Please model this.
Amino acid sequence: MARRGETARVQRLYDKAAESYDRFIVIPEKMLFGEGRRWVASQADGDTLEIAVGTGRNLPYYPTAVRLTGIDLSPAMLDVARDRARALGREMDLRVGDAQALDFPDARFDTVVSTLALCTIPDARQAVAEARRVLRPGGRLVLLEHVRSPNPVVRAGQRILDPLFVRFQADHLLREPCDDAEAEGFAVDRRERSKWGIVERLVARKPG
Model:
């Protein structure tokens, strides 16, 4: 019940933020994530699922051969993503969905992508478990996330700010997606940290 209530809260927050999200996120992306979205999209191959696709900010960067499906809790965010896809002339199956309970059969996708999403999904490990389920053997999970810094000074600041971010934005500052991926049986192929250890790029493979 607690997870269900928090999931509903996340949906409400992002429905409310949908119209202003692209304007709001520009400066944080430039400061912290740079070309991260381009990098994530370049790792995609074959049938690709993007969880928490949001307003579709990754769409311009996917290779044309990739067959795209995107899910998000927020219908309002998906409306913006559909407008972006039309403007780009990009075909994509966009649908309302919960990353914690994906409405897809086992072994459906070659790649699962998540950018700046596991920080807000209430049960991040369950989302990683679902990603593993819907990946084909040998398929890849590709992540761009903000994470808990290994630097003790930076981490102390994150601990102070975390309750406020969680309360007002459902945004968790102290998560470790790599730990969740390893716990769910993924083999980590690539892991990079930057920006005082706050930003992480991760490629993990489902054993095949």
Summary: The longest helix spans residues 2-33. The chain has six helices and seven strands. The domain at 2-205 is CATH 3.40.50.150 (Rossmann fold).
